Amino acid sequence: MTSSRPVVVKRMPEKMNLKQARKFLKEVEPFLVSDRPQIVFDMSQVRQIDAAGIDVLLRCMRAAARHDGDLKLASLSPQAAVVLELTRAGRLFEIYETSTAAAKSFSCFLPNAIKQLYEQPLDTVLQMPAPEPPSDSAGLAA
Amino acid sequence: MDVRAIVLIGGAGPAESIAGIPLAYLDALGRPVIDRVQQRLKNFGVSCITIISDSSSDNGPFSHAVAISPSLPHLYAEREQLWQVAEDTFLKYAEGGADLVLALRVGPYVEADYEALIQHHLDRHCAVTMAVDDAGQSLEQFVLSASARNDAAALFRNRMARMRRECAPFRVRGYCNRLRNSADLRKLALDGLLARNEVRPQGTELKPGVWVGASARIHRKARVIAPAFIGAHATVRAAALITRGAVLEHHAEVDCGTVVENSSLLPFARVGAGLDVMHSVVGFRRLCHLRQDVEVEIADQTIVGMVPLTALSRLAGSTAALFAFIPIQLYRGLLASSQRKSAAKIPECPDNVTGALEAPALEVPATGAEASEFPSQLAVARRYGDE
Questions:
Q1: Among B306, B333, B367, which residue terminates a domain?
Q2: Which of B262, B288, B306 is the endpoint of a domain?
Q3: Cα–Cα distance between B375 and B317 in angstroms, integer?
Q4: Is residue B303 exposed (0-12), middle (13-18) or buried (19+ Cβ within 10 Å)?
Q5: How would residue B376 be classed by pLDDT, with cut points 50, 70 and 90?
Q6: CA atoms within 13 A on the CB side of A106
Q7: What is the pLDDT, as a whole number, of residue B161?
Q8: Of the segments A7-21, B69-83, B333-347, which one has the largest average pLDDT value?
Q9: How near does any CA of chain A get to the CA of B355, in Å?
Q10: What is the CATH number of the domain that holds B119?
Q11: Rounded CA Rg of chain B
Q12: How far is the C-alpha of B196 from the C-alpha of B36, rounded, in Å?
């Protein structure tokens, strides 16, 4: 299964509030109305996303689906992952670890690249890595 | 070398089954587990396979829901007789000229390299060789020399728990799943979707990561997110969402607006409209929640039900629904009064305005934003919630 159509990777801004979301929607609109669009939103920069941001994601998804295309998400920041799970919008999208994997997934299924949120409880998935306690030797040196 | 196999199903009491149907008979990505086991044995050159199961598998109310290849020799034994029948089959094989007999219980689903297992058995000149997992636990898979009748008898009489003579076990490197409960069945299917084992989905890969079986119906407005499997003759109705490794086995049905997330629907399972099915295995009017580790029997057919098991009853049901639908629509269209409510009548403005309306009761200074929307003469009592 291969696809020769181009994949558009778009990085989302750091803040996805009402103003930024509208601006972002205007930027991606031309890609969404093309024939069978293949779009990836890179969410690695997203630190703040509210209802307007989620609304834009859903609008983009609907627009892509209307033109027989698809929208995938990649490189979710912990903040974005939390909000997507909280609003249950995350389950509407294929979510990949990296943008490259997401772009490749339009041509072939990559089981190891997909972010497998469903295999373990949410609290363990979204747990931020705990800061390492200072080692004794470091403490002595200081 | 003539290698034959005896495959046992059951022998574990009420465990390893859902609604009385052994897990081995249930589908994993469009094909019963037992079919996959026997296909694997055939691929390794096993010439003859006999499947022996305890009688409970055939007598349940949902026995039509399982479809096993009719070409396989299938023996049914009473629960207590299972091991005796296995011993008799071994003797028959030995007399029929077999060199080695593989005895397995499904039970565990194991992707063992049977060639390596047999080579291990021959190299060590053992009478019986046991396959074990990485932790050294038995996988209930054995190779028996056809001449070792006493060892075979001891093995079957001890229900594969003990051998007459100990021998170096064979460590299986491949995929193992104990298939003890519905969670393990779900894991087997999910691992298959994620290509962690050799359980390949039976169907066409419609788009990367989404497999669809023959004659499956997916509404245009339904959304299917990879990885997902929709089995043959399954139905996904409008606005349904199939996501996060959801598996719908054959003839399963998802009604309008229902979300199936990280769940498996067993054959003929039907989930009603507007539900949120998460982390569960649904089938035979039951729902097993994997995270809560609880099994619930649901009597309400509008929530969780069963699609009729036979084609004739499905046809009869569809016909009856159609004949019930047409008169109702005719009645609604021709005879029933309109449900539309007429607009409320607004009282006409009186010609002579009374004094009370001339001057506002309360003067509210309008802010800049409100001033553009509302004339300053009007008091805004309540707009949103606490505003």
A1: B306
A2: B306
A3: 62
A4: middle
A5: very low
A6: 23
A7: 87
A8: A7-21
A9: 46
A10: 3.90.550.10
A11: 31
A12: 15
